[in-house]
Amino acid sequence: MTNGLAVFDHARFVLREQSGTTLLKGQSVAQPASRRDQEKQFATELKMLLEKQVSKAYAIRIGKSLLYKLEVDVDGELRPRLEELRNPKRGQFAFQTDILVEKVDTEIPLVVIELKFGGFSTHDIITYSSKATRHKEIYPYLRYGFVVGGSDALSKKFLTHNQGVDFAMAVPDMATAGSKLIELVKRQIDNAETLVEIMRATRMSFTRYEKNIDVDR
């Protein structure tokens, strides 16, 4: 296409330029992928990588919803109902997650990874932090993460506005940072499994509990 501002006639599918050049009717023009499409592709790539590298004892889900609330209604009935607890639906006391790692045999959710591509905003951090906090009120063993694809680094605004997210990482591309991301997710699975074991124990005592802050600069 030559220089000049382009105007698209949606009714007749004709692209003209101010210079007077006209493309044929019905000819399509390639459009750059939207941010949402890039995030979907990033999620698919990450899911495939996790399925190759993580134990088959764990399932990797895209778009699965998790509960953020349980309610006893005016009739004394639990909402959602007991039979719905393992398969919550978005809009029914549940939020959708980008990627979920869950135990195959029990379907216990262990690790959530929320994704953005190309950057993130203050609003993104506040939103995901709130989601993480609410989900962990229902699943207290859950580990919650935030991963930004197509980006070289996170910024201080993540630390400023985050409260509920347990781990975060910038991934320029899977070729250069994919292996580090997989190792990070594996550690979070181990952490979640440790919390599950503690919660299952009728009685348990321990001499040390520690949350580490580990940052790559």
Overview of the molecule:
This protein is 32% helix and 23% strand. It has 217 residues and is of the alpha+beta class. The protein folds into two domains: 1-31, no CATH class; 32-200, Trna Endonuclease, Chain: A, domain 1. The strands form four sheets. Strands 3-8-9-10-11 form a five-stranded mixed beta sheet, with helices on both faces. Strands 1-2 form a two-stranded antiparallel sheet. The longest helix has 27 residues, at 174-200. It is globular and about 50 Å long.
Mind sketching the topology for me?
Blueprint lengths: L5 E4 L4 E4 L17 H19 L4 E5 L2 E3 L3 E2 L5 E2 L14 E3 L2 E5 L5 E9 L4 H17 L4 E7 L6 H6 L5 E5 L2 H27 L17
Strand share of the residues? 15-25%
Distance between the termini: 42 Å
Tell me the structural class. Answer: alpha+beta
What coarse outline follows from CA principal-axis ratios?
Answer: globular
Number of domains: 2
Helix coverage percent: 25-40%
What is the mean predicted local confidence, pLDDT?
86
Features:
32% helix, 23% strand, 217 residues, alpha+beta, single chain
In a few lines, what is going on in this structure?
Helix content is 32%, strand content 23%. It has helices spanning 35-53, 122-138, 156-161, 174-200, and strands at residues 6-9, 14-17, 58-62, 65-67, 71-72, 78-79, 94-96, 99-103, 109-117, 143-149, 167-171. The chain has a five-stranded mixed β-sheet, with helices on both faces. Strands 1-2 form a two-stranded antiparallel ribbon.
